């Protein structure tokens, strides 16, 4: 089964099984360049794990930023005003 992921910049990534590996190709459409690599099942697992960790970190940062904003906006300060007052 082939999976194609389009990005906002017009590029796309394709993952598809080839023999005992997964072929991952990254297509830079504007530059008309394609990079291809082959991943073993273990490497695919490591990539999935890394992506999950990155998503969790991103979600945690978003939650922290929202909590910070809520805390200081309740005092009548925007996040920018609080940052400027603390950091000059």
Please describe the structure with a list of short key phrases separated by commas or semicolons.
alpha+beta, four-stranded antiparallel beta sheet, elongated, about 90 residues, 2 domains
Describe this structure in words.
The longest helix is centred in the middle third of the chain and has 33 residues, at 41-73. The protein folds into two domains: 1-40; 51-88. By secondary structure, it is an alpha+beta fold. The protein has helices at 41-73, 79-87; strands spanning 3-6, 12-18, 21-28, 33-39.
- As a percent range, the share of helical residues equals 40-55%
Structural Rg: 20 Å
Helix segment tally: 2
Number of domains: 2
Note poorly predicted spans.
none
The pLDDT mean sits at 87
Strand order of the biggest β-sheet: 1-2-3-4
Distance between the terminal alpha carbons, to the nearest Å? Answer: 54 Å
Task: Find the structural class using helix and strand composition.
Answer: alpha+beta
* Sheet with the most strands, sense and barrel status: 4 strands, antiparallel
- Overall geometric form: elongated
Tell me the series of helices and strands, N- to C-terminal: EEEEHH
- Give the amount of beta strand, in percent: 25-35%
Count every beta strand, where a strand is a DSSP E run of 2 or more residues.
Answer: 4
